[in-house]
Design a protein that fits this description.
By secondary structure, the protein is α+β, with helices and mostly antiparallel strands. The protein has a 4-stranded antiparallel beta sheet, with no helix packed on it. Strand 1 and strand 2 form a beta hairpin. Helix 3 runs parallel beside helix 8 and helix 5 packs antiparallel against helix 7.
């Protein structure tokens, strides 16, 4: 018997592992499909590309200027005219600084898009976890409803034959009505989550047939997750790129305080004579660059503070998620062996009542106590899985 029990346990664990593996693959495939079809993410990608191109376009030379002049002389003096073309440009080193700032800005926009992609994947994962939880609650409510339907049929027959009181009959009617309400609410919750996933998928159908259990996820130590955030969090990388962009922009603004130049070619025709020459000019930015260096330095300081703020927030979230997972683990141990895959408590209650071993009022108390305890356990596993998924979002 011990050997059979051990084999049964091993077989159950193998089935659970297989189900978790299938669920993990299903979660990943659904998330990949939604990322490819999500209209909000596609719009953000187009917006990011536009912002990158605009930033790169700001580092061009100014447009060349072409001027034509014609003057009419009186009497027989004749006319004169001239044509010129000129090009102005900033201090030479400024273009290089702007180019570096544009590259850092491009990295930031790319990293922000990657962050939104990861956050969408996390939202899909959390919605699928909510869906699995809703399925479990639907299954529980259906089991309770089936159980109470059977008892209702029995009490109704006994009541008609005078073997049950009106109080017992009304009690089972009330309990059965509440069971039906719980079942319908649970089914509505499942449907709402399905529709939410379809909306995230751009209105296209999402196959949830393989989503029957939570995905397999491991729990590592805090240092592991801290290193993951440092190496893999694109929002943290984007914040660092924004600091570099602001630093290079401030450096470029300081170079804008240096003079700008213009060079040109001019051709004059006067009294039949042709003249060729060059023009040169210098721009002294006494007024146009006022306060811009101070503003750029303030932007750099703001970006640095934003980086520090996000770093602290990422660390806070890590510690909070990790503490929550450990707390849920401890609380889940209290339910060990109570709600296993072969949980038959409702069946035992039904048999005890039908066999006359359990009074009807005690049966109603026990079934409601079971519903409350099982729902608390389902919510506990749900919250544990959400916190674990948050820790593993960069895997």
């Amino acid at each position: 018997m011990k050997r059979i029990s051990a084999l049964t346990t091993a077989f159950a664990l193998a089935l659970t592992s297989m189900a978790s593996g299938l669920a993990t693959d299903a979660f990943r495939q659904i998330a990949d499909g939604i990322i490819a079809n999500n209209p909000a993410l596609a719009a953000r990608k187009a917006s990011s590309d536009s912002e990158i191109l605009q930033m790169q376009a700001e580092n061009n030379l100014s447009d060349p200027e072409v001027e034509f002049e014609h003057q009419w002389g009186q009497d027989q003096i004749g006319n004169k005219w001239s044509i010129s073309i000129s090009q102005s440009f900033d201090w030479p080193g400024l273009y290089h600084r702007r180019s570096l700032a544009a590259k850092a800005g491009k990295r930031a926009f790319t990293q922000l898009y990657q962050a939104e992609e990861i956050e969408l994947r996390q939202r899909v994962t959390e919605t699928l976890i909510d869906y699995v939880t809703a399925i479990h609650k639907l299954k529980l409510s259906e089991e309770v409803k089936v159980n109470l339907d059977s008892i209702y049929d029995y009490i109704s027959r006994v009541y008609e034959n005078g073997g049950a009181t009106i109080i017992d009959y009304r009690k089972i009617c009330l309990e059965r009505s509440e069971a039906i309400t719980r079942f319908e609410d649970a089914r509505l919750a499942v449907d709402n989550l399905r529709y939410e996933l379809i909306a995230l998928n751009g209105g296209e159908y999402v196959d949830l047939s393989q989503v029957t259990d939570y995905p397999a996820m491991s729990l590592n130590d805090e240092d592991y997750y801290a290193a993951k955030i440092k190496d893999c969090d694109p929002r943290l990388a984007a914040a660092a790129s924004n600091v570099e962009t602001a630093r290079l922009t401030a450096s470029a603004e300081r170079l804008r305080s240096l003079p700008g130049f213009s060079l040109g070619y001019i051709h004059n025709v006067e009294i039949g004579e042709h003249f060729n020459g060059i023009t040169a000019g210098i721009t002294l930015p006494f007024f146009s660059n006022r306060k811009k260096v101070a503003a750029a330095n303030a932007d750099f300081l703001s970006a640095q503070y934003s980086l520090d703020e996000y770093t602290f927030e990422a660390q806070r979230r890590l510690h909070a998620d990790y503490a929550a997972v450990k707390n849920y683990q401890r609380r889940m141990k209290a339910y060990d062996n109570m709600f296993s895959d072969n949980d038959n408590y409702l069946e035992l209650l039904h048999k005890s009542l039908m066999g006359g071993q359990l009074p009807f009022t005690i049966y109603l108390y026990e079934i409601n106590y079971y519903i409350e305890a099982k729902t608390s356990y389902i919510d506990l596993v749900h919250n544990y899985t959400l916190s674990l998924a948050s820790l593993n979002r960069f895997e």
